[in-house]
Every structure is written in structure tokens, then in C-alpha cells.
Automatic annotation (TrEMBL):
It comes from Pirellula staleyi (strain ATCC 27377 / DSM 6068 / ICPB 4128). This is Transposase IS4 family protein. Residues 106-261 form the Transposase IS4-like domain. Transmembrane segments: none annotated. GO terms for biological process: DNA transposition. Residues 12-87 form the Insertion element IS402-like domain. Coiled coil: none annotated. Pfam families: DDE_Tnp_1 (PF01609), DUF4096 (PF13340). GO terms for molecular function: DNA binding; transposase activity.
Length: 272
């Protein structure tokens, strides 16, 4: 119909839904009857629309699902770890189709505004002390996100490093027969305590570059660490990631996990 608005570009891709539907809990119809349960695919589309646009839950188009219904299911799935499992499944599929490259891994932090405050928020020292949150992301050599940690915007990058590395090692325990894994870090991590943590406690080989070193290296070739910065930039295309409205940190992490799962599966299609 002329003038009709299409929301197809904001719906969850079929490939992502095909993996997600197997992770959802079984919903058994009530023997007492009552109102029919919402179509789960429509609910998933509504949640994805909310993350892509950053709108309020009640602003989700009713042709997808009622905002209250989408939010209710979202809370259930967060508590059940559905989005965490979805990201893990996407990583395993990518590893099977393309192969995660553990030779050069990178970690970097990025800050997000959080106007409503809430858990794991703090005063952003680079934004006039406005409330914000920081995510620490770890990627493989291709920029595929493999580890994540979240804290307040006033948390130094180095204080989130251990949690980020442990999250990655929890998802993919190290193969004892694998070669040495190199970890790329910028000058924010340049300290003896970080080198001890990375090399002695977690058995990575640290490659920490100062800003001056990176500038000199750019004259010869682009530094390997650029992939994690690209992934941060890509995740910020989700308006629900770029601006945090969730007061509960688990909800914010779930949104990040869904975005990481989408990006991972998309790259699997491109590279596979």
C-alpha cells in the first residue's frame, strides 16, 4: 500500500532467528485456555527493532509486538541467559565455518552515555562528568568479538582487562597445543602490573604500543589493533548500544551480546 512503512530492515535476520529459536525455553499451552501466546518470532523482531533504533519499549510498532510484551519476554530471556548463549553459539558457528584467529587478539574500551544512570555507571571524565558506562571488548585477529566486560565510565581500561580476558577464556578455553597467543594493547595498559597479569598469570604475550609508536608504525602499515576499534564502531551502529537507557547492567550486557551475535554471524556469511 502506498505510504506504508516497512520495518523489514529492522527485523531480526532469519539466520540469527534460526539459531536463537533453539535456545528459547519451551512454552507449553495452558490447559485452561486463555489469551494465545505471542508469536515468538514477532517478539524477537520487536526486541531487535528496539536495539537497532534505541527507541523506548512502548514506541515499538504494534505490527511487531506490544512494547510491554516484548519487554516482558526480554527480561525472561536475559534471566535465562538466552543472549549469552546466542553469542556463544554464533562464535562456535563462526569457528566451524571460518575459524577464529587466536594468533593476534586485541582489547580496547569504549564509553557510552547513560542518561538514566543505574548499575555499572559512573561519571565520564571525558564528557563533563555526565553519567556513562564503559565496555571492554576483546576480539580475535579478524575483529570478531570474543570477550566482554562492563563497568562505569570512570573505570580505567586496565581495571577491566582481567574480567575481559577471563570472559574470553571462559567462552573458549585455551588449547594446550596451541601456539603462543599475542595480545595487542594501547598505552592505557602500559604498566608492569598489566604485563605480569597478561604474561605470567594468563599466559598471553603482551604487545603494548604507545601512541608515538603507533604513529610511526602507521607509516609502514596499519597497526594490528585497529580491528577492535572497528568492532566498537560497528557496535555503535546499534542505537541501543550507542546510548544506554537500561538501568540494570544485565539488560545492557544482553543487548551487547545480541549485537555481538549478529555481527559474528554476519561475518561468518561474508568470510565463509
Amino acid at each position: 500500500m502506498d505510504g506504508a512503512v516497512s520495518f523489514d530492515a529492522y527485523r531480526m535476520p532469519d539466520e540469527l532467528w534460526q539459531q536463537m529459536q533453539f535456545l528459547l525455553p519451551p512454552y507449553i499451552p495452558s490447559p485452561l485456555g486463555g489469551r494465545p501466546r505471542a508469536v515468538l518470532r514477532d517478539v524477537a523482531d520487536a526486541i531487535f527493532y528496539r536495539i537497532r533504533t534505541g527507541c523506548q519499549w512502548k514506541a515499538i510498532p504494534r505490527c511487531l509486538a506490544a512494547g510491554s510484551t516484548a519487554h516482558s519476554y526480554f527480561q525472561q530471556w536475559v534471566e535465562q541467559g538466552v543472549f549469552d548463549d546466542l553469542w556463544q553459539l554464533a562464535l562456535e558457528l563462526f569457528d566451524d565455518l571460518v575459524g577464529l584467529d587466536w594468533r593476534w587478539q586485541a582489547v580496547d574500551g569504549a564509553m557510552t552515555k547513560a542518561p538514566l544512570g543505574g548499575e555499572a555507571t559512573g561519571k565520564n571524565p571525558t564528557d563533563r562528568a555526565k553519567l556513562g558506562t564503559k565496555r571492554s571488548l576483546m576480539t580475535d585477529a579478524r575483529g570478531i568479538p570474543v570477550g566482554l566486560a562492563v563497568s562505569g565510565a570512570n573505570t580505567h581500561d586496565s581495571r577491566l582487562l582481567q574480567a575481559t580476558l577471563e570472559n574470553r577464556l571462559l567462552r573458549f578455553p585455551r588449547d594446550p597445543n596451541s601456539r603462543c597467543e599475542r595480545l595487542l594493547l594501547d598505552k592505557a595498559y602500559d604498566s608492569q602490573a598489566i604485563r605480569t597479569l597478561v604474561e605470567e598469570q594468563l599466559s598471553f604475550r603482551a604487545h603494548i604500543r604507545s601512541r608515538h609508536q603507533e604513529i610511526r608504525e602507521k607509516e609502514r602499515a596499519r597497526p594490528r589493533r585497529w580491528v577492535v576499534e572497528r568492532t566498537h564502531s560497528w557496535l555503535n551502529r546499534f542505537r541501543g548500544v550507542l546510548l544506554r537507557w537500561e538501568k540494570k547492567v544485565d539488560n545492557h550486557i544482553a543487548i551487547l551480546q545480541l549485537a555481538c551475535a549478529f555481527y559474528t554471524l554476519k561475518q561468518a556469511q561474508v568470510l565463509g
